[in-house]
Design a protein that fits this description.
The complex is a heterodimer of chains A (161) and B (203). By secondary structure, chain A is mostly helical. Chain A is 79% helix and 0% strand. In chain A, helix 2 packs antiparallel against helix 3, helix 2 packs across helix 5 and helix 5 packs across helix 6. With 203 residues, chain B is mainly alpha-helical. The N terminus and C terminus of chain B are likely disordered. Classes of the chains: A mainly alpha (161), B mainly alpha (203).
Chain lengths: 161, 203
């Protein structure tokens, strides 16, 4: 492309900007986008940590037997963490860090899980779900000890005796 | 030529303005956006032509889209990266979108100058014999077109646009480590293809 052509493009471009009254998007809009993604990311980390904490709680509640509820909460925790990763990618310049932030996400979720579990927040959430969500109650009432669960429980009992 | 505080002569004020200053000026006065266009028109159109084969009118259309998008998002420019990398990122994304929307072949369109620069790749992967280089010069476009899109892109950015790893990282929004891996793999693929395409009669 030669200088004349470039000049033609510049003129045409400025004309388009003038005629269509195009203006730069306001800075506050970009700040808002970033704030939203940071908020969503933080919220999802909290939720993932909470779900993981409920896994600890339900495992203990059902005597460490592997049943559907802890598995569902574990799956929920993983899915929410993946959503958090997607939200993180939308935040400015995070591409520079590759997958290293995943370590932070996992660590943060584990620490939050422990925090919520020790404060009995997980017990409260799980009890509320049990009392107020009919489908949750149905899943719980279908609890049946599994063969693997019994083996683990027996091993634990033997070890502690 | 590239970098955060690249300087150009401002033809109107006879003073030197950095890219960041140009952005500030363009934000307060739309007419000043012409200085940014003046500086980057040729570079961006050359880059677009290197990625996809387009007619003159199509390049103009795409270039206009790039500048419109750049102007609309001027307030989103992050001064922690170079303006050059930022506008190249917009150009790259617009070119990729164009390819997808129009289902265009991603054929490159390198010039004679590009062929000389691309021979740097041959040197880099130890394709040093003259007959190999002669063969590569003849078939450079064919070799590039047969490569995977991401490999071709990093080779173009590294050897033709002469970007460093951090700039390529900012343009493609990939971590610098990934960029280094892509370049390494691209060179390997280039080496394999130059070896495969070579007929016995050419030796």
């Amino acid at each position: 492309m030669n200088i004349k052509q470039n000049h033609k493009i510049e003129e045409s471009e400025l004309k388009t900007i003038r005629d269509n009254r195009i203006s730069p998007r306001p800075k506050w809009l970009f700040t808002l986008y970033q704030t939203i993604f940071w908020t969503v990311f933080s919220f999802l980390i909290l939720m993932s940590g909470l779900a993981l904490g409920i896994v600890f709680h339900t495992f203990k509640k059902y005597d460490y037997e592997i049943i559907i509820l802890p598995s569902l909460w574990a799956l929920a925790s993983v899915l929410i963490a993946l959503l958090a990763r997607m939200a993180f990618r939308k935040i400015r310049n995070t591409y520079r860090y590759g997958e290293k932030p995943l370590i932070f996400v996992v660590l943060a979720c584990a620490l939050l899980a422990l925090f919520f579990y020790l404060l009995n927040i997980t017990e409260y959430i799980e009890d509320r779900a049990n009392n107020e969500i009919p489908i949750y109650n149905k899943i719980e009432s279908r609890y049946k000890p599994t063969k693997i669960g019994r083996e683990i429980l027996n091993n634990l009992k033997t070890t502690t005796q | 030529m590239t970098g955060k505080n690249t300087q150009i002569e401002d033809p109107r004020n006879s003073s030197v303005s950095s890219d960041s200053e140009l952005v500030t000026q363009a934000l307060s006065n739309p007419e000043d956006f012409s200085m940014i266009m003046q500086k980057y028109s040729a570079k961006i159109s050359r880059y677009i032509c290197r990625i996809i084969s387009l007619s003159g009118d199509e390049v103009e259309d795409l270039l206009q889209n790039v500048f419109i998008k750049t102007y609309k998002n001027l307030n989103d420019f992050d001064s922690s990266l170079s303006f050059s990398s930022w506008i190249y990122r917009i150009a790259h994304n617009e070119a990729i979108d164009y390819i997808r929307k129009n289902k265009r072949n991603k054929k490159s369109n390198s010039s004679e100058d590009d062929e000389d620069a691309l021979l740097d790749i041959a040197d880099d992967v130890n394709v040093s014999e003259e007959v190999h280089k002669k063969h590569i010069r003849k078939n450079i476009n064919k070799i590039l077109d047969s490569m995977r899109e991401e490999y071709r892109t990093v080779l173009i950015l590294k050897f033709l646009e002469e970007r460093d790893y951090n700039e390529i990282s900012d343009i493609l929004k990939k971590p610098p480590g990934t960029v280094a891996t892509l370049i390494h793999r691209a060179k390997e693929e280039f080496r394999k293809k130059t070896g495969k395409d070579l007929n016995i009669k050419d030796i």
